[in-house]
Design a protein that fits this description.
By secondary structure, the protein is an alpha+beta fold. The protein has 4 domains: 1-161, Tetratricopeptide repeat domain (Serine Threonine Protein Phosphatase 5, Tetratricopeptide repeat), CATH 1.25.40; 162-250, Tetratricopeptide repeat domain (Serine Threonine Protein Phosphatase 5, Tetratricopeptide repeat), CATH 1.25.40.10; 258-340, Serine Threonine Protein Phosphatase 5, Tetratricopeptide repeat; 474-626, Heat Shock Protein 90, CATH 3.30.565. The protein contains 27 helices and 7 strands. It has a 5-stranded mixed β-sheet, covered by helices on one side. A hairpin with a 2-residue loop joins strand 4 and strand 5. The radius of gyration is 36 Å and the shape is elongated.
Length: 628
């Protein structure tokens, strides 16, 4: 195509804008961007502008054009070419001593290196950009935005080091600055990054909230690229929440726009997530096809973290299809890549650079103070004294807090010990022991030695279980159910075997793998027998069912067909000897302590049961106990 033909195809408004720039020759990034913002992702127009600036010896324009071309090549995964353009732009800016253009070039180089996981270089250039921009006493609007870009890059590096709280701090600092500048692109980027950190921390709902904020900003500025990134991240949350169909519905429409965008990084990520979603739904052929595309693009563009992720999902697919050897090989390849990314030398280097940045920053402050008057020197000495006093006060405060913490721990341990002692007293109820032994004695008197020995064995086992359980914080559920059965056997002696009881465990539930507080069910069984079934005429039934409530809780139901709580309370008031039951209160306190260790809630619900005519048909106790 001839030069004349190219000139004829150039938009008129672009020609007008470039003529205005060449006449005025602005030296700031903002001045150039104001005229060329709508054309900066058009490589034909930017190459044309670059040629004009070279011909007219306009270096500021050259640096601007080179950086815009570098951005386009970065977003289309041509990282080597991108770096060449950005570094040429940096050289021109440094010769001009143009801080704005220099900071912008440094940031762009840092972002490009970060996209290829070359983190040493990424951090070097990002730190240089930040230090240079912060050295300007009255920064321009563009420099303020450049500082935010550098903060974002540092946050990404903390993120890579899995220092997610520190990364969130950097991103939130940038987010506040972008809000002050009303930069909606910056708001979109930082909300997306904060969401990613919370996703890695396992706080999926919080991550989803930030991703949706980012999506709203990207929709407002009509950024298709940003919308694709956000929707892919939201779909990834759905996958982690085990909602593969919802994720697949969100991901499938992204295939066309990512192909048009041409960024291998995001194309690879979307295909990997499509492979993950299809694999979870059992669409193995589609899963392999998408994962192959994702792995191929990650390999071609040298994006090792995505290669590791794709191989990890290949391992899961191979396992699901029964190819365990292939699953092992894929997993080993994934681990090898991750290990190479996280080698000790690389991490140490990055940490050293971060420390060097802080040290340089402090050195600059000290040099600035040294150039001031003696008043500032005096103030510096006062600051040292204040710091020393502050350290002493902090040490004293820390010592006091440690003492208070030790007292709190001691009190907590005493409280737990007191609860266990009260629990033991509740289980070793003297009335229960006395009546049980009397029942066994009655068998001996009636010369029924077989039953006497049988129940004496059960009684001794129960007492041993109670004594052993009282010294244990938690036991397996199957052991607790065995103790319950012994207790019901003994109590049933006094009812002439009139109580029919049944223990049911949900199919697929492994009670030996579930831990609960020891001797936790007896107080509820005692209430059911003595307050519900004891006063009842006719058939006496007691059911205990164990089932899985959700991934974090086990549910135990104790149901009887007794007289109900209202009738039981009336009967209790008529008794000459009234016993105060404290077992359930103790149980609630023990469950509260147990739940704190598991960081999940517990619940006890006691309800009356009625038939259709409103007649009491018994009582039901439901315990929701936290499990791992």
């Amino acid at each position: 195509m001839s030069k004349n033909l190219i000139a004829q195809t150039l938009p008129e408004d672009y020609i007008t804008a470039t003529q205005r720039i060449i006449e005025l020759k602005p030296t700031t990034y903002a001045g150039l961007d104001e005229e060329l913002k709508k054309y900066r992702y058009d490589t034909i127009l930017m190459n044309d502008f670059l040629a004009k600036t070279k011909k007219l010896n306009y270096p500021e324009g050259q640096s601007f054009a080179l950086n815009q071309l570098g951005r386009v090549y970065r977003n289309t995964s041509k990282y080597k070419r991108s770096l060449e353009y950005h570094k040429e732009a940096l050289t021109i800016a440094q010769k001009l001593n143009n801080v704005e253009l220099e900071v912008f070039s440094l940031n762009m180089i840092g972002v490009t290196y970060r996209r290829t996981d070359s983190l040493r270089y990424a951090l070097d250039y990002s730190q240089q950009a930040r230090v240079l921009a912060e050295s300007v006493e009255e920064p321009t609007l563009h420099l303020k935005r450049s500082i935010n870009v550098a903060k974002n890059s540092i946050g990404n590096l903390y993120q890579w080091l899995e220092q997610y709280e520190m990364a969130i701090e950097e991103f939130k600092s940038a987010l506040q600055s972008e809000a002050d500048l009303n930069n909606k692109l910056g708001l979109a980027i930082n909300n997306q990054n904060i969401g990613d950190c919370y996703e890695h921390l396992g706080e999926l709902d919080t991550a989803l909230n930030y991703y949706r904020k980012s999506l709203a900003y990207n929709e407002e500025i009509k950024s298709v690229y940003g919308q694709v990134i956000c929707k892919n991240s939201i779909a990834q949350i759905y996958l982690k929440q085990n909602k593969p169909q919802t994720a697949l519905t969100l991901l499938t429409p992204l295939v066309e726009p990512i192909t048009n965008i041409g960024d291998n990084f995001i194309i690879s990520t979307v295909h990997i997530n499509l492979g993950w979603a299809n694999g979870q739904l059992g669409y193995f052929a589609a899963a392999y096809e998408h994962l192959n595309q994702g792995l191929r693009l990650a390999t071609e563009s040298n994006i090792p973290n995505l290669k590791a992720e794709a191989l990890s999902h290949f391992s899961e697919l191979a396992e699901k299809t029964g190819n365990y050897r292939a699953s092992k090989e894929y997993l080993e390849q994934s681990y090898a890549i991750e290990k190479s990314l996280l080698d000790t030398r690389n991490i140490r280097y990055i940490n050293d650079i971060l420390l060097r940045y802080e040290a340089e920053k402090k050195d600059n402050e000290i040099l600035k103070l040294a150039s001031e008057s003696e008043i500032y020197k005096l103030q510096l000495r006062k600051n040292h004294t204040s710091i020393l006093i502050g350290v002493l006060l902090l040490t004293l405060l820390g010592t006091m807090l440690f003492i208070l913490y030790r007292q709190y721990k001691s009190n907590s341990e005493k409280k737990v010990l007191s609860l266990e002692q009260n629990m033991l007293r509740s289980q070793m109820n003297p009335h229960f022991l006395f009546n049980s032994l009397n029942s066994i004695k009655l068998y001996i008197i009636n010369n029924d030695q077989k039953k006497a020995v049988h129940y004496l064995n059960k009684f001794s086992k129960l007492i041993r279980r109670i004594l052993e359980g009282s010294s244990m914080k938690e036991i397996a559920l199957d052991e607790e159910l065995e103790t319950v059965e012994l207790y019901l056997n003994i109590e049933n002696i006094r009812f002439n075997e009139e109580i029919n009881y049944e223990i049911q465990i949900e199919e697929g539930l492994n009670p030996s793998a579930i831990k609960i507080p020891s001797l936790i069910l007896q107080p509820f069984l005692e209430n059911a027998i003595w307050h519900g079934l004891s006063p009842k005429e006719g058939e006496k039934n007691l059911w205990i069912t164990v089932s899985k409530k959700d991934d974090y809780h086990t549910e135990i139901r104790i149901k009887d067909n007794g007289v109900g709580r209202s009738a039981s309370e009336i009967a209790k008031q008529k008794r000459v000897l009234k016993r105060k039951s404290v077992g359930i209160d103790i149980t609630k306190e023990r469950l509260a302590n147990f739940s704190r260790d598991y960081q999940n809630d517990f619940d006890i619900t006691i309800s009356d049961l009625f038939d259709q005519q409103g007649v009491s048909t018994g009582t039901q106790v439901v315990l929701k106990i936290p499990t791992i």
